[in-house]
Amino acid sequence: MRNPHAGVPFDTSDEDIAVALEDVSIPTLMLSLVHMTGDPGLIRGRLKPAGLFLNEVQGYMSEEDKAEVRAIALDTIRSYRDQGCPEPEPVSADMLHEMMNWLVCEEVPDEYVPMLMEEMELDGTDVRRVDVSANTSDREAFPVVVIGCGQSGLLAGIRLKEAGIPFTIVEKNAGIGGTWWENSYPGARVDVGNHFYCYSFEPSDTWTEYFAQQPELQAYFEAVMTRHGIGLHVRWETEVLGAAWDDHSGTWSVRTREQDGTETTLVARAVISAVGQLNRPSIPEIPGQDTFTGPAFHSARWDHTVELAGKRVAMIGAGASGFQIAPAIAAEVEQLTVFQRTAQWMFPNPNYHEAVGPGVRWALHHLPFYGRWYRFLIFWPGCDKGLEAARVDPDYPDQQRAVSEMNEFTRQMCTEWITSQIGDAPDLAAKVIPDYPATGKRTLQDNGSWLRTLTRDNVELVRTGIDHIEPDAVVTVDGRRYPADVIVYATGFHANRVLWPMEITGRDGVDLRSLWGERPAAYLGITVPGFPNLFCMYGPGTNLAHGGSLIFHSECQMRYITGCIEELIAGGHRSMEPRQEKYDEWHERSQNELKKLVWSQPSVKHSFFKNAYGEIHILSPWRLVDYWNWTKQPEMDDFVVR
Ligand code: NAP
Asked: Ligand 1 in contact with 326 (CB < 6 A)?
């Protein structure tokens, strides 16, 4: 069988190939040519990228050099086509490492190479799929309940199905997607490049934008679900109320409620929570908000029946969601007033709203391994570099302004980007340039649309605190009244209330919520002592503020979880839970590490990363490569197995 990443054979005309080549990433194309010819000569000569920056895909090559590559490519691709597009011979490991270094213009350290090779799957093998050894009847007797059918729940279903383990996914919504089902607000789009933000084993060559909008993302997950036959295993519009462990039978009883109120109990040998961290909307209590007479809704509960055209809209909160909503609605509303408590850092990403041209889509579909190298090209700049950049230098003098020299550099770069767009507007500059270190909160990606929106005549950014809400207005603490017909709360989620509001009761009747309080933790973000056979995906301590993608993390977690379940079945065990000392040590180590990073700094006053005590428990302070290594397979000595 042909390697699925070797490209679909084609008979495209010379003219159409030449047109497609106008569009493509030239450095990525060059590596595809190396596969086609088996000759590394092309990347050992003069033509090479000069550097790499986040989402920069052309490698800063001159137009002349790119034209030269296109001419070589046209000849090579024509000849490859005329030979019938044969599957390229495998390339040696050393050569692949050389190709990596060449593409990203730096030495990719040895320790990263196995992870990247796995992520790219150049040999067409999905090694994150766990090989199963236990016999079929044992696995049939091990039903699993997965809570949630977003990206991680779908992945869980795919892996369990591959392993022959019976499972039911319980999903509160009527369709797949989780975040990408619920967040249908105008302008909702992902901010991780889509050719990386998709499962490693389910690449898509049809993305229409580099950072797809919500409908396209939801459709991707729907298509993957259909391809893997997961839909039949899902109970839609059914919410999990709670789950209780019975030590005697070694089972979880999972209580569910359907839309019509019918309650059912599912019995499972293991439970996988795939509920995410950002799905329970948080709306701050503001005096008088109940008296507001117009429509008022949260960004993740967008009311599409409300006509915004010609209305005065007050948007309270402007983090990642508000930042996308304002540019999407400003042109149609009569007046948009944005109430923002804290200014946001943003950095330039010119591709943020760009369409993927037909030439790139042709290359992704047909050229050998083009899509794989493109994935790596987008992944690498966000692979652990952001973590080093987030590290606090305790000797750096002005910690309110920056936490290190590198952080000061980032501040200057982002400030220049902001000021370059607003020109000589000191009032606006004072409102939009943050007063805390760069990257201290989740940094937003920008193509200029946010600041352009703020300079519109019908848009006002208000940084003064809100005092109260009246039936037709929002009033700030300085007494100013902002008339409004509609209120949009873009105020984020209960991110720190992990697994809330489910009632999870473990061994000896221990309630998970009481155990955690404000400090949720799980060993590797996955397992908790006293809660046997409970596995979290995107659990405490696994949110990524420094790069990577949650899909990458989910793939690490699900491989580990499948490994655990496999151990349970093959060993005939009733249960496993992490040793208390492992959990404690992990939590302490994670906390120590988090304290050394910019997100924890007191100068960052408001941030959903922090709990009520200003501590951080939901983020990962770890390098992706370490997390990947730690989650390759469970260490059974870390567990109490019964
Ligand atoms: P968020 O980043 O937590 O932003 C919430 C906004 O509401 C902030 O402006 C916050 O102000 C404000 N707010 C919250 N409570 C407030 C209060 N009591 N008084 C005044 N203002 C208040 O939430 P989000 O924008 O929904 O984004 C959440 C996360 O979802 C993101 O960080 C990201 O992980 C994900 N997301 C991603 C994308 C994307 O991929 N592009 C898009 C949307 C969301 P402060 O800043 O002062 O707290």
From this structure: no
The Cβ-side half-sphere exposure at 284, using a 13 Å CA radius, reads 17
Atom 2, ligand 1: residue with shortest CA distance: 319
Q: How far is the CA of 191 from the centre of ligand 1 (A)?
A: 14
Q: Rounded to an integer, what distance in angstroms lies between the CA atom of residue 381 and that of residue 250?
A: 45
How many Å lie between the centroid of ligand 1 and the Cα of residue 454?
18
Q: Please state, rounded to an integer, the average pLDDT across all residues of the chain.
A: 96
* 95: three-class secondary structure by DSSP: helix
Give the pLDDT band of residue 99 (cuts 50, 70, 90).
Answer: very high
Token pair, residue 261, equals 């109120």
> Atom 20 in ligand 1: which residue has the minimum CA distance?
341
Q: How many angstroms does the Cα of residue 322 sit away from the middle of ligand 1?
A: 7
Same domain for 182 and 163? yes
For residue 501, cis peptide bond before it (omega within 30 degrees of 0): yes
Ligand 1 proximity of 442 Cβ (cutoff 6 Å): yes
Residues 456 and 319 in one domain: yes
**Residue 389 included in any domain:** no
* β 270-273/534-536 pair status: parallel
Q: Quick check: CB of 319 below 6 Å from ligand 1?
A: yes
Q: Which atom of ligand 1 is nearest to the CA of 318?
A: 9
> Which CB contacts under 8 angstroms, 24+ apart, belong to 12-21?
12/81, 12/362, 12/366, 14/74, 14/78, 16/362, 17/74, 17/77, 17/78, 17/81, 18/70, 18/74, 19/359, 20/358, 20/359, 20/362, 20/363, 21/70, 21/73, 21/74, 21/77, 21/359
Residue-level pLDDT at 55: 82
Confidence of residue 136 (pLDDT cuts 50, 70, 90): confident
Here the CATH number for the domain that contains residue 320 is: 3.50.50.60
pLDDT over threshold 90, residue 486? yes
Which pLDDT belongs to residue 485?
98
pLDDT value at residue 63: 97
Q: Residue 606: CB within 6 Å of ligand 1?
A: yes
Q: Flag whether pLDDT at 137 surpasses 90.
A: no
Question: Do 189 and 212 form a contact (C-beta atoms < 8 A)?
Answer: yes
> Is residue 395, in this structure, part of any structural domain at all?
no
For the cut 90, the answer to whether the pLDDT of residue 29 exceeds it is yes
Domain around 159: 136-280+495-641
Q: Determine the Cα–Cα distance for residues 315 and 470; give it in Å rounded to an integer.
A: 15
Q: Which pLDDT belongs to residue 131?
A: 73
Instruction: Say if residues 235 and 498 touch (Cβ distance below 8 Å).
Output: no
Q: What's the rounded mean pLDDT across residues 252-278?
A: 97
Report how many domains make up the chain. 3
Please give the average per-residue pLDDT across 441-447, as a whole number: 92
Whether 608 is in the pocket of ligand 1, judged by its Cβ within 6 Å, is yes
CA distances from 296 to 215, 291, 453 (A): 23, 11, 22
Provide the pairing of β-strand 167-170 with 234-235.
Answer: parallel
Each residue of 449-466: pLDDT tens digit?
A: 999 999 999 999 999 999
Residue 90 placed within a domain: yes
- Please compute the mean of the pLDDT values over residues 359-382 and round it to a whole number: 97
In a domain, 393, yes or no: no
74 to each of 14, 65, 69, 408, how far by Cα in Å?
Answer: 7, 14, 9, 45
Rounded to an integer, the average pLDDT of 426-436 is: 93
Query: pTM (2 decimals)?
Result: 0.97
